[in-house]
Amino acid sequence: MTAQHERLRIGGKPLRADAERTVHTILEAAERVLLVDPTATMEQIAEAAGVARTTVHRRFATREALIDALTRWATAQFAAAVDGAVSDAVPPLVVLYRVTADVLRVKIGWGFAMDRAGSSADPEISRVHAEVLAECDRFLRRAQATGLLRSDVDIVWARRCYYALIHEATKGGTADADIDTLTTLIVDTLLRGFGTAAAQSTGS
Amino acid sequence: MTAQHERLRIGGKPLRADAERTVHTILEAAERVLLVDPTATMEQIAEAAGVARTTVHRRFATREALIDALTRWATAQFAAAVDGAVSDAVPPLVVLYRVTADVLRVKIGWGFAMDRAGSSADPEISRVHAEVLAECDRFLRRAQATGLLRSDVDIVWARRCYYALIHEATKGGTADADIDTLTTLIVDTLLRGFGTAAAQSTGS
DNA sequence: ATAACTTGCGACATTAATGTCGCAAGTTCT
DNA sequence: AGAACTTGCGACATTAATGTCGCAAGTTAT
Description:
Two copies of one chain form a homodimer.
Chain A: H1 17-36, H2 42-49, H3 53-59, H4 63-85, H5 92-107, H6 111-117, H7 123-146, H8 155-169, H9 179-192
Helix pairs in contact in A: 1-2, 1-4, 2-3, 4-5, 4-6, 4-7, 5-9, 7-8, 8-9
Chain A binds a DNA duplex (30 and 30 nucleotides) through residues 16-19, 22, 41-43, 51-55, 57-58, 61-63.
């Protein structure tokens, strides 16, 4: 939970209070601006942060470094949300609700960083994401074993759809912002789909 | 079906055969390159097309014009696919299969252009997409009336999920390329979701 | 208080992409 | 065959973003 904003310009020296605040402000502004326009310039980011362009460069050596830091920050929160919500001591359905809600909370507000996290060059980020992904698959298998999911579903496809639903739900900005409603919608869709019981297509 | 590649550099004059081929080659190359890296340069596109950079500029005045043409091209195919598959004279489930398969065919191979089509500045493109969207909603309502979809589902959310599923299915390049399998997977997921009949979360 | 640190500002160097031109060589059409 | 057109090539102008520096003024910590 401690504000630990990744590798900065200077090695590992602790930052003074004001500098720390500045870094935060920049990251938040970057998220906001880059979500709207992924090709936004340092200038625009600096402006959105209410800071001089040179200051941004002082904190993040290059544009790439800034985006990397942003991605690391969001990834850490994402992993924390998942780790905190998944537990074998709780019924899968409850876990599903909890983890969905927690992930939504992170993804709203860090959408840009989360989206590009999957295709990051940073090995550390890739590692964390792969871990979360594996944890997700593990959970889905448990849900299958418990009878929450049908036994004939492909776990990988199910996981991809789950991710896609979450992604879809976080679109449209703050318009449909009630986390609990969204969570219910996602879980409901994931489990039941949209069809009636009567007209079901039978797989091969 | 005629090759009608949008507004080019010069007004409306018909192109010579070789020029026509070049335009095609460039559009295809652009799709391929931009899918991998949306910030790819004219140089990279030209190279991928096996053409000089100046030739690209001769055909498309600006980078934006090129992307616009690409988007128009893909959008036209998309609309044609949907229009050709949707019919009130056929049971909704059959339409669902047909339209899904046809759209998949377009979206595989024109993924970049299709993705950015939604947020295009060109009013013509927006119009066509809005039309398709409306047609989709109309179809979903019919499916609901027929009893294919539950009567309590939100049409807009259902449509968004349908789009998202198609999008998800076209990820990963040519790996999982069997259209019919993908179509079945999508329709099945859309209608049934992943849960068992036993453990269903009941909406509010 | 004072040393260390941070920020804004303005100036600067560098790089990379865009877009334009004219010309020579090759292609298409009739 | 000959006119019209297209392409590659090399050169050029322009623009915009990146990244660096030093200095003066303000802030933080001790």
